[in-house]
Design goal:
Structural class: alpha+beta
Number of helices: 6
Number of domains: 2
Order of helices and strands: HEEEEHHEEEHHH
Subcellular location: Nucleus
Largest sheet: 4 strands, antiparallel
Strand content: 15-25%
Keywords: DNA damage, DNA repair, DNA-binding, Nucleus
Protein name: Non-homologous end-joining factor 1
Main location: nucleus
Pfam families: XLF, XLF_CC
Number of strands: 7
Length: 301
């Protein structure tokens, strides 16, 4: 039987999806098992969470469906069949969803059928701050930051390589292929001036892109593995919301970019953005030395 902690860990590795209840848009994730379900919903302003075991489901089903008698597993299976299509971006025909929101609670009302009889259900989700959104997003930002630094360093290396070819006498066969040397500061400034306003104008409740979904699940799986190792070794969790206090010193991340997920959130700041950090720190930039100038000679000399 899967316990409450295992069910929550299973939820952690689920991707977020954009869903609509009535006229309201949210991002949500859910996990249904024989022992119950967990549901997590956010409108990017608040987070609501519910964990319901078989006892809760049995009691609530009797309150809402006085004419309907069925085993708890039947209710769980029906709820899973109602919610999963929504989380997968498919329509759930014949079902009615609505929501009622207060400062401390989100209630999702469901109207459907089970065995030919009306079936009603309410998801009661109190407001919550959980590890399912904030910490993974911090780690995703750090992983993407590291990836950006790697790409910027690669572009600088490519410019040095191209310059060496030119000094050796090589020439482009087509002038339209010529590119300007990569300038990191101007690139980032252009992003802030042009791209960032478009990103920030997007509406709330949007789901992650498919690429970010994969990154989120990689982050979540890594956190589950780390928690399991900590549990087996008897190590006490970090006091900073279970986020490791080890600082990133500029070396390669363990297991590559996707495995570098135990970085302290306190180490993150705008000053660590590429092009804005002049001294070594949590996100030390990779420096590329410019190749020495060579005398011009034939490309194959």
């Amino acid at each position: 039987m899967e316990g409450s902690e295992d069910l929550d860990s299973s939820l952690l590795t689920q991707p977020w999806a954009s869903v609509c209840f009535g006229e309201s848009t949210f991002i949500a994730k859910a996990c249904f098992r024989e022992t119950g379900y967990v549901l997590l919903i956010s409108d990017l302003s608040s987070v609501w969470y519910e964990h319901a075991d078989t006892d809760v489901i049995g009691k609530r089903s009797k309150e809402l469906n006085k004419r309907l008698t069925a085993h708890v597993s039947s209710f769980l299976n029906r709820l899973s069949n109602l919610m999963c299509p929504l989380l997968e971006g498919r329509e759930s025909d014949g079902n009615s969803f609505s929501c009622q929101q207060t400062a401390s609670k989100l209630t999702i009302h469901v109207k459907s059928e089970l065995s030919g009889l009306p079936f009603y259900w309410d998801f009661h989700c109190p407001a919550a701050i959980s590890r399912h959104l904030v910490r993974p997003l911090i780690r995703m930002s750090l992983a993407l930051q590291y990836q950006l630094q790697e790409l910027a360093s690669l572009l600088v290396q490519k410019d040095v390589e191209i310059e060496d070819y030119r000094e050796s006498g090589a020439a482009l066969s087509r002038g339209r292929l010529r590119t300007e040397p990569f300038q990191e500061k101007s690139f980032l400034q252009k992003f802030v001036d042009e791209s960032l306003p478009q990103l920030c104008s997007a509406g709330d409740g949007q789901a992650f892109t498919s690429t970010l979904q994969h990154l989120y699940m990689a982050v979540a799986r890594q956190e589950v593995r780390t928690a399991q190792k900590r549990h087996h070794s008897g190590e006490q969790p970090s006091t900073e919301g279970n986020v490791s206090s080890a600082a990133y010193t500029g070396g390669p991340f363990p297991q590559g970019v996707w495995g570098a997920l135990d970085i302290a959130s306190s180490q993150w700041s705008w000053s660590s953005w590429p092009g804005r950090q002049e001294e070594s720190g949590p996100c030390t930039r990779l420096l590329v030395s410019k190749a020495k100038r060579k005398k011009a000679k034939g490309l194959f000399g």
